[in-house]
Amino acid sequence: MTNAYSAVLQSDILNTYYADNAKKLHKTVDRILCKFGGLSGKDTDDFYSLANEVFADVIKRYDYKQPFDGFLYSCLSNKIMSEITKRNREKRKADRMAVSLDVFKGEEEELSLLDFLPSDFDTFEEAAKRQESGKYQDKVERYISKLSNRQVNILNLLIDSYEPYEIRKILEISPKEYADSMQIMRSYENVRILF
């Protein structure tokens, strides 16, 4: 096959795939992507860009011994699958690196990460600002009625300015039991009663 004839075929292939704003190339990518779920519009745009790179490589390597459409589809499918695998691997890696705020850090597991985060938010103070004609007492009573005895004891000790490690020592509970109780006490389901 002569270079002139090869150039004409490449030009025809380019025109076919890139006519009407790369409609045929996008349809090919869409056919591959429909096998995968959970892709956003940004993901699709990323894969269209990737398809342009693959197309440029495929047209250089095309040997005219097989149909171009099948060769392109195969190469695109392999590249997209590799990219999705890479993205999923990165997500799993990020998940493994995530740390819960309730994980205990510090000397003898006395403090959780939440103890290190500065915050001037006070649930009770905030609720007091929003109370309506004495209804605050009713809201606090409803909040406390949803808590277990251990959680009420923790709440009382927190109000009395005890530190988390002191509360655990007084109530003879483990760091995990304390963290679980605090998570329940701070949960939206319980705290929303106060507002």
What is shown here, in short?
The protein is an all-alpha fold and 195 residues long. It has helices spanning 3-33, 41-61, 68-97, 123-129, 136-145, 149-159, 164-171, 175-186, 188-191; strands at residues 104-105, 111-112.
Question: What would you note in describing this structure?
Answer:
The protein has 195 residues and is mostly helical. It folds into 2 domains: 3-97; 104-194, no CATH class. The protein is 69% helix and 2% strand. It has helices at 3-33, 41-61, 68-97, 123-129, 136-145, 149-159, 164-171, 175-186, 188-191, and strands at residues 104-105, 111-112. The protein has a two-stranded antiparallel ribbon with strand order 1-2. The longest helix has 31 residues, at 3-33. The mean pLDDT is 79.
Largest sheet strand order: 1-2
Q: H/E order of the elements?
A: HHHEEHHHHHH
Indicate the proportion of strand residues. Answer: under 5%
How many discrete domains?
A: 2
Rounded to the nearest angstrom, the distance between the terminal CA atoms is 79 Å
Blueprint of the fold:
Blueprint: H1 3-33, H2 41-61, H3 68-97, E1 104-105, E2 111-112, H4 123-129, H5 136-145, H6 149-159, H7 164-171, H8 175-186, H9 188-191
Antiparallel strand pairs: 1-2
